[in-house]
Amino acid sequence: MKPYSFLLIVLLLAGPKVFAIQQSKATDSLRKLVSSALKKNRQPTDTLTIHRINKLAGSFFQSQPDSTLYYGELAVRLSKKINFLLGMANGYVKIAGVNIFRANYTAAAQNYSTALRLYQQLDNKKGIADAYTGLGRVQYFLGKYNNALQLYNKALPLYLKTPGETDEGDCYNQMGNSYDNMSNFSKAIDYYLKSLIINIKHKDTLAAANKYSNIGVIMQELELYPKALSYYSRALALWGKLGDQQGIGTGNLNIGDLYIIQEKYKEAMPYTNKAYAIFRKMNDTEGLGMVYYDLGLYNYYTGRKDTAIYYLNLALQSSIKKNMLFNTAYSYQGLAKVYNSEKKYALAYKYAMGAQAAGHKLNSLLVLTDATLQVSTALAGLRRFEEAYHEHQQYSAYKSDLKHNEAVHKVMLINMELDFAKKQNKVTVQQHKKEQDYQTRLAHQNSEIMISAGLIVILTIVALMYYTGQSKQQTINKLLEQKNQEVIQQQTKLNELNTLKDRLIGVLAHDLRAPISTLRGLFNLMTEDGITHEEFMAMTPRVYATLEHTSDFLDTLLFWINSQVDGAETKTQNFALANLVNRELQHLDEKLKQKGITTQTDISPEVIVLADPNPVRIVIHNFLTNAIKFSNRGGVIHISAQVQDSSVAFCLKDHGIGMEAAYLTNLFKRQVTSNTGTENETGTGMGLLFCKDLIEKQQGTIWANSTPGQGTELCFSLPIGKLGEV
User: Exposed, middle or buried: residue 586 (CB in 10 Å: 0-12, 13-18, 19+)?
Assistant: First the structure.
């Protein structure tokens, strides 16, 4: 569920000029000026008063939306009397904001469209951009994110031509929200970081807290929980520093939601309860609706299903009332999950279909995946097995796409974070330079003032200034040196991660091609009636087994990716090397038969290795596919493992085409040009370089021997394990 969505509504509607945390003394003063003008002349015709009325309307938005509507309509009415186009346009924008808050999107669209025509007549680029942004927000709340992005892209070039960066940063934030809800997390993060760097540059702490919260939500959706907690905590700290109660409530809600998802209920409840207390005190119905959803999840996971249904229904009523489509979808989904577990399949089916319909409307792969699983479960419970099977097939397709997208996004997000860190360091250095320039100018002014006091005083001040300047310069130089070192370290890490990304893409492309081609061929035959039903059913178990292994292999690879992204420690354990080899031989049996290759295995079941089996499995898989690729038809592959003192040496030898000494020398040093196999098979040239990285992280070594025309032997050694601890 989107933990920040209710706070987002306020930020989206308010905008950079409308948003206000509390009424300030300036607002009170402005209200007195307007009241005075209205008393003197009930229908003032001067543009200054109308400007003040519009400004007053904006200042009331956060605390009293009804007052915003009143003053906005007053500004429009007075502007029409004197044909003051700018006053009318600004008034319509204020009215539109209130209509969005009340979920009256048709009226809001009409208000913004009217304002757009007026701004275009005036050729007011800032106003035109604001109107496009407002229309984009209407489309956003209707769940039409592509339409919203088209409007934001019209606004952005106009903002870039206007002074200041605040509106530009706000536009980036709106674009990030749309991409987030479309599950395009990489683009969402990119725009959030662009907006955040502007917030940091202008020291807009409140807006920065909102961006940290948004980024934390994406990290949570990608199951990068430690990173999500880091961003949520950063946002909560900023809100706490500002004393912003709504932000504090949101931060506590987000962290509680994160812990509930991880089934850490004791850690979750203090945060959830604090959020509930804040929103109840503020009478914030949107915030309470979010708390109800989390309480529903908590009670479901802790076995109190009746209570879970009660809270989920409260969450559903709140989201429907406020037309919050994402929250509605997740409330439906939560109810479907509970009713499925209670075997009340008719009710489960009703709510699951509601969630699925919302997912289609939102075009959200994340929502569709979870909703389709609940639909399939409910249909199976209703004994509508054929429909259940169809829905489960669709769920599997969604799940596969989701896993692929998450893997790509995780690698891209790391690169974006590192690039953001570089930009943030650059902004920090620039701010230091500005402060230094300001101090220098101030020092010069002081020295000029003190000249009239006499030569002795001037010399004393100059000496003090010189000493102070030198001390500050030394301090700044040290800070700059530290920042430069941080940038160099970040660049080194970025290069390593780019190399990792290339290796992963190569492995995925290499090992997914065969099973996908097999599956596509099978379905082509079935579509074109090229095989009978009996033949199809006979082939299905074998294809299914291939896909199962491919899925299992991908899970292993993604597990390893997560460990690299999150910095998790390697999980070493004792395991039998023969089991991993047999498992991969079974998977590659079809490829071996295609080329008529036989294997001879000499590995005792008592050969135990102490390492993480997941990366070792990836290496064995790579060794085997290379041996098959470069073996001649009808060839033999020898596989063996020998115990050597405190290590185990594993070797795989083929009798294929072999390789030249120059090629062999660079095999584990850098990416090489991949030669084609004996039957024109292709590769990436990265596989063995990737294997070297995996083995060395397991405290092992890797090597190869080869003779042209006689074959190649690939080997690695790993620490020996204990037989009794398997």
Answer: exposed
